[in-house]
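Appendix B: a complete holo record

For completeness, this appendix reproduces one full record from the ligand-bound portion of the collection. The bound molecule is zinc ion. The inputs are the chain sequence and the ligand SMILES; the output is the full three-dimensional arrangement of the complex, encoded as structure tokens. No fields have been trimmed.
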Amino acid sequence: MTRILRGRLLSFKDSPRRAGAAAYRYLEDGALRIEAGCIVEVGEARDIMARAPAQAVVDDHSGRLILPGFIDTHIHYPQTRVIGSYGEQLLEWLQKYTFVEEQKFADPARAAAVASFFLDELARQGTTTAMVYCAVQPESAEAFFTEAERRNARMIAGKVMMDRNAPPALTDDPQRGYDESKALLTKWHGRGRLGYAISPRFAITSTPAQLEAAGALAREFPDAHVQTHLSENAAEIAMTKSLYPEARDYLDVYERVGLVGPKSVFGHCIHLEPREIASLARHRGVAAFCPTSNLFLGSGLFDEAGLDAAGVRVALATDVGAGTSYSMLQTANEAYKALQLRRQSWPALQAFYQLTQGNARALGLEDRIGALEPGLEADIVVLNSRATPAMAHRMESVDGDLKEELFVLMTMGDDRSVAQTYVAGEKAKPD
Ligand SMILES: [Zn+2]
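The structure of the chain with zinc ion bound, as generated:
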């Protein structure tokens, strides 16, 4: 089937901070042609429509913005029922809420139901790819991959590995964590649009032997991703240093076992020391900025400009359920405010680059997703800048300025602004 989307096309080729006006392409009356789940042609609407086959389905989104689908680089699907839990910082929050909830994921039926809710919610928010933590039970990852495959969504996920400092029901051991991860990886990595992320939760919940095993798996499967947490909160850093006295710093706990590389995404990275920053840049690891989570748990303020200037690859993420919104628009909103507190500027074009092409690059997926270009997969979001009365009212004074419109979208927009989401060329926003 041929599908044509018509509307205002916006797509990034590079970071606006580096490339300026050459960073993006905008077509006021553009169109793209989709066949077999991929974009095959992009251009002015009159040209694309003139060449369209007679039986093509045309989705006319004139007046609305059409962008690549949003990408969330760090999120926990088993935490959908603890989002918005009151009053704690990281380590207490994990014990009191998360570790209680995650025990329920041994039940495959529950895991399947939550995975279905979660993927519906991402589609509703215009998020078409995410890098996802499952729970420790392999059933939780199995349920997630099964549901993602059914939807033909490009997703990366992994079962968390944890063998200490958690309830017994949530711990594996070094050998079991390795075996279960390897079995899931072998089954799901590269199957359809799915990828596996080796996922030791963080240094505190893994013994040195478990991190060794995770590193061995990463060496065996250099093509797979690695995801974990790094330098989120002062108490966490102090505890990590006491558990790993031989390590030079927090990053070194991962570095010495081979878990720091271009496929590794580290959540938070707030309180990094100079050696850690230099090493992260040298190994091409990714720092995932999770502003709603960092503010919610009172963890601290991410140094986006500093890390970028030091050559660290930066990503943006929700970190639901410590993050408080599934919306990447709202995540950009909070990122802007957190950076304001550090006197760092983050223009709307930079934000929308990060939500799409920037996050695709952070995951090494820019040859598949993250732009509206022929040959890429047709994961797309359609945005309505006048979705609420207050937005429509505000838009009356925007007067055709794209940057200003984007800033209104990221400050006032949320799932109501997502008019449609396409996954591999098919409509995916639930009714
Ligand atoms: Zn997290």
